[in-house]
Design brief:
There is one protein chain. The protein has 505 residues and is α/β, with parallel strands linked by helices. Helices cover 61% and strands 8% of the residues. The protein is built from 20 helices and 6 strands. It has a 4-stranded mixed beta sheet. Helix 3 crosses helix 4, helix 5 runs antiparallel to helix 10 and helix 8 crosses helix 15. The protein is elongated and about 100 Å long. It starts with 9 loop residues before the first helix and ends in an 8-residue tail after the last helix.
Length: 505
């Protein structure tokens, strides 16, 4: 007798282990979480500064935003161990506001964007993730890996030749270190070793301090001085909406990716709410907007092995501590060390199995095409939202085309020659029902026609209109049509719409 395993309830389904309490009681797990947070904090600094420059604001804006969002999402988010901070995608979307209207309008945009995210979360936007096909997800991951890699080019072009061996040594250390021990994150070891070497030998290579000035004080409450009227809303609303959509899409896709890596389930609606709240808090303290960071999340989850909210919280805390109390030390970290970390992350993120020749041979061409469209669109525009949306649209079109060819109509005449039987087989919707009317012999059929729908399903009004057109054509030839075999759902739809769509008239 086969044992039946009961389905897990919602609480256990979303219980991700180790929990925060389990990590706090286990010195080994706690050490891993703490060190992972430190590594992420170090990686956040140059990126936050760079994204501030992209957005056209002071580097302190990006750094404070990263601190606030990382700490906030540790408590509010639905995906443990995921890192949220200032990001390039958000910076690109809202940069025109700072450039054209100034800092007050910029912060007002961030605040409104966070509010819109909360509204979208309450409307259930996170549930739309189920409509993103696997091929789009693979394309998203591969595009992210490429963008992470190419984003390191500015630190590798036109730099002293010593940068290249330093990056190579950093990659080698991170490759070999896990073979010796996984207690200390390999990226942290690489950063410490390369920094020590640069200081001891007094090598003149680009460092974190060259990226911009680090702040000297805590963030303060910032209330944007903008008129509360329709004109202000017209200025900031389009940018705020774009920021909200891009941020949620990136965050939810990253959460899904971490779910796959860790074989766990996370609360996507809570994550969307947390992202919105974190953006509101960021704006309230004069920070720029942000969302989940794929690179730093991969450092945290894959390279460092973190699994709990402790690492996310400490990433924000360490970031603030590093820039306020150890700014001089952080400033001497060579960019080569951080470039090596990001290159390793890009290699680990890329789905190499998806581009193997054996995989490409087995995979349907439409699936591969969707993946490539997602990758090309994302890399070309540097906008993950554009890539994912185009990928989903392409997947829908290719699915519709493929399914449209699965409908068959088989005609038989009974022994007496007085009745024609048509058996319709397949799913009938707007794409497959368009040529349904062409598959019947209106003039040559006997006076009685039976259309058997027992092996098909009517999905939309387009199919009901096509069936009405068929009946009308037979009526014009003085012949009687009977439609049989409709299941309950299809019969109810057909009964409600037939004769009211103008088909054939």
């Amino acid at each position: 007798m086969t044992a039946v395993t009961p389905t897990r309830d919602a609480a256990s389904r979303y219980r991700i282990e180790p929990t925060v309490m389990q990590a706090l009681r286990n010195p080994r797990l706690l050490t891993r979480e703490v060190l992972a947070g430190l590594v992420v904090a170090l990686a956040l600094i140059p990126e936050a500064i760079a994204f501030s420059i992209i957005a056209g604001v002071d580097p302190r804006v990006g750094l404070f935003s990263s601190f606030i969002m990382a700490v906030a999402i540790a408590f509010l988010g639905g995906r443990p161990a995921m890192i949220t901070a200032a990001t390039g995608a958000i910076a690109l979307v809202i940069a025109p506001v700072a450039r054209e209207y100034g800092m007050d309008y910029f912060i007002a945009t961030v605040l409104l964007g966070g509010v819109i995210q909360v509204i979208l979360a309450l409307l259930g936007v996170a549930k739309l993730m189920r409509f993103i096909p696997r091929s789009v997800m693979v394309g998203f991951v591969n595009a992210l890996a490429i963008l992470i890699f190419t984003s390191q080019f500015p630190q590798l072009i036109g730099v002293p030749w010593l940068v290249y061996p330093l990056v190579a040594v950093g990659l080698l250390v991170m490759y070999l270190m896990p073979r010796l021990t996984k207690v200390i994150p390999a990226p942290l070891v690489a950063i410490v070793l390369l920094t020590a070497a640069v200081v001891v030998f007094a090598w003149n290579v680009p460092n974190v301090g060259d990226q911009g000035e680090l702040p000297q004080s805590l963030p303060e409450l910032f209330i944007p001085n903008v008129p509360l009227n329709l004109e202000t809303l017209q200025i900031i609303a389009p940018y705020a909406l774009a920021m909200a959509v891009v941020g949620l899409l990136e965050s939810l896709m990253t959460a899904k990716l971490v779910d796959d890596i860790t074989d766990t389930h996370s609360r996507k609606t809570r994550e969307a709410l947390g992202q919105g709240a974190a953006n509101v808090l960021s704006g309230a303290f004069g920070g720029m907007g942000g969302c989940a960071m794929i690179g730093q999340t991969m450092i945290n989850v894959k390279a460092s092995g973190a699994r709990t909210r402790i690492s996310t919280f400490l990433a924000g805390v360490f970031l603030l501590v590093l820039i306020l109390t150890l700014g001089d030390v952080v400033a001497i970290i060579p960019m080569a060390a951080l470039v090596a970390v990001m290159i390793l992350v890009s290699i680990a993120t890329f789905d190499w199995h998806s581009v193997r020749l054996s995989t490409l041979k087995r995979m349907p061409k439409s699936e591969t095409a969707v993946m490539l469209i997602t990758v090309i669109a994302t890399v070309w525009t540097h906008n993950l939202a554009v890539g994912v949306i185009l990928g989903v649209v392409a997947a829908m079109i290719m699915f519709a085309r493929r399914v449209a060819h699965f409908v068959t109509v088989t005609r038989t005449i009974d022994d007496t020659g007085t009745t024609a039987h048509y058996a319709v087989n397949g799913e009938l919707f707007f794409a497959s029902s368009n040529d349904l009317t062409t598959q019947f012999e209106y003039a040559d059929d006997p006076d009685t026609v039976v259309i058997d729908m027992s092996r098909s399903h009517v999905w939309d009004a387009s199919t009901v209109a096509a069936l009405d057109a068929i009946v009308t054509k037979y009526d014009n030839h003085g012949k009687t049509v009977t439609i049989v075999g409709l299941n309950d759902t299809a019969a109810a739809l057909h009964a409600r719409l037939t004769g009211n769509l103008g088909a054939g008239h």
